[in-house]
TrEMBL record:
It comes from Rossellomorea marisflavi. It holds the Pfam family DapB_C. PANTHER family: 4-HYDROXY-TETRAHYDRODIPICOLINATE REDUCTASE 1, CHLOROPLASTIC-RELATED, DIHYDRODIPICOLINATE REDUCTASE. The active site is at residues 145, 149. It catalyses: (S)-2,3,4,5-tetrahydrodipicolinate + NADP(+) + H2O = (2S,4S)-4-hydroxy-2,3,4,5-tetrahydrodipicolinate + NADPH + H(+); (S)-2,3,4,5-tetrahydrodipicolinate + NAD(+) + H2O = (2S,4S)-4-hydroxy-2,3,4,5-tetrahydrodipicolinate + NADH + H(+). This is 4-hydroxy-tetrahydrodipicolinate reductase. GO terms for biological process: diaminopimelate biosynthetic process; lysine biosynthetic process via diaminopimelate. The keyword S-adenosyl-L-methionine does not apply. One of its GO terms (molecular function) is 4-hydroxy-tetrahydrodipicolinate reductase. InterPro entries: DapB_C, DapB_N, DapB_N_CS, DHDPR_bac, NAD(P)-bd_dom_sf.
Length: 256
């Protein structure tokens, strides 16, 4: 297999550390540099304070971004402008940002994968929820994450609602006259689907999709107890992005 040169942005983060280990332990991946704005990372490779400095030194085949919503968006745009493929795990991008990045990737003819959740089990949970929504159109999503998470709702919850939207008509759920006596009690809403975000220490990444019918409730749940659960997805994305000429949003679109 051909060697893939990888740079990682956010190498000291919870996900970044796991990604550094993954790249170091994969025979056909080579970690060539890391991007750390504080330049504190020590992965045994050159550390750059910005993506521009990194690219001026050497262009990797693939950039893995695991930073923050604002930084991740800027990095992905900069990478595409430099002709570098990206695998983006960072969440919290707006629909407009995703659209802009897709257009840029197509204009440049460069692969890019933005995956709100790299865990195979989470992708199945989203797909099963999409399938079930045809039969149970009344749905609420409960996503639960650690309390250091910056974005809410989670990228996974947004993606789940988007996938359900592809097969289910928009629907007003609950009583038409319901009123919140405490603002936010019914959570956020996407096409009638209510999304509730829990943030607590001790959690990693969890999601429960609840589908209600007459006299029954179907619950589809996924739990990531450790960030290693995301790494097989990161590996598949790094390999697959080498073959792409456009932006793919969601791991479900590249898994066979
Ligand atoms: N797609 C997935 O499966 C998945 C799984 C877990 C987390 N995430 C997402 O990944 C992102 C990172 O999550 P985390 O838990 O590792 O967060 P974290 O806070 O532990 O790590 C983020 C890292 O980014 C670094 N950073 C910030 N600005 C930077 C810059 N300008 N240049 C380089 N590095 C910079 C920070 O120093 C930090 O080390 C979040 O958006 C999160 O939602 C996605
Ligand atoms: O820890 C996080 O932050 C996670 N973010 C992703 C999301 O927003 O869906 C995926 C799971 C972990």
């Amino acid at each position: 297999m051909e060697m893939i040169k990888v740079s990682i942005a956010g190498p000291r983060g919870r996900m970044g550390k796991e990604a550094v280990t993954l790249v170091e332990e994969t025979n056909h991946f080579e970690l060539v540099s890391v991007i750390d704005h504080k330049q504190e990372a020590s992965a045994g490779v050159p550390v750059f304070a910005s993506l521009e400095e990194c690219f001026a030194h050497e262009l990797p085949d693939v950039l893995i971004d695991l930073t923050t919503p604002e930084v991740g968006y800027t990095h992905t745009k900069t990478a595409l402008e430099h002709g570098v493929r990206s695998v983006v795990g960072t969440t919290g991008f707006t629909a407009e940002q995703l659209e802009e990045l897709k257009t840029l990737a197509e204009d440049k003819g460069i692969g890019c994968i933005i995956a709100p959740n790299f865990a195979i089990g989470a992708v199945l949970m989203m797909k099963f929820s999409q399938m079930a929504s045809k039969y149970f159109p009344d749905i609420e999503i409960l996503e639960l994450h650690h309390d250091q998470k910056l974005d809410a709702p989670s990228g996974t919850a947004v993606k789940t609602a988007e996938m359900i939207r592809e097969v289910r008509e928009s629907k007003e759920q609950g009583h038409p006259d319901e009123k919140e006596t405490l603002q936010g009690a019914r959570g956020a809403e996407m096409d009638g689907i209510h999304i509730h975000s829990v943030r607590l220490p001790g959690l990693v990444a969890h999601q429960q999709v609840m589908l209600g019918g007459e006299g029954e409730l179907l619950t589809i749940r996924h739990d990531s107890f450790h960030r290693k659960s995301f790494m097989s997805g990161v590996k598949v994305c790094v390999e697959t992005v080498m073959e792409l000429k456009t932006l793919v949003y969601g791991l479900e679109n590249i898994l066979e």
